[in-house]
Amino acid sequence: MSKTLGEFLADVYESDTANGDGSTTVFNLSGKLHSTDSLSVFIDGLKRRLTTDYTVNLGTSQVTFITAPALAQNIVFNYTKKSL
After folding, report:
1. What pTM, to 2 d.p., does this model score?
2. Fewer beta carbons below 10 Å: N end or C end of the chain?
3. pLDDT digits (tens, 9 = 90+) for 22-36
4. Are the C-beta atoms of residues 7 and 84 closer than 8 Å to each other?
C-alpha cells in the first residue's frame, strides 16, 4: 500500500492505495482514522458505500470489504487524518 499526504482547508488528508488480489478483504490504513465520515473508498474509480460495500473498524483503522476486490483492481482510500 502506498500513501500520499497533503493539506486541504485546514485538514490533513491521506490517500492510501492498494491492488485487489481476488481474496484479500481487510486493508489497514497507514494513518489513524477518526471518523467514518472522513473516509471515501474507490475501486477502479467507482466510489463504494459504507455498510453496503465495506465496513470500518475505527479502533484499528481497518477497512473490510464485503466482497474481495478482484485481481488487479485499483483501490484508493481517501481520508482526513486530523484537523489543523
Report:
1. 0.84
2. C
3. 999 999 999 988 899
4. yes
pLDDT tens for each residue of 61-84: 999 999 999 999 999 999 987 655
At 37 the three-state DSSP class reads: helix
pLDDT, averaged across the chain: 89
Among residues 77, 3, 84, which one has the least CA distance to residue 36?
77
| Strand intervals (E) in 1-84 | 2-8, 11-19, 26-28, 39-43, 46-48, 54-57, 62-65, 74-83
SS3 38: helix
Q: Which amino acid is at 73?
A: Q
In angstroms, the first-to-last Cα distance of the chain is 25
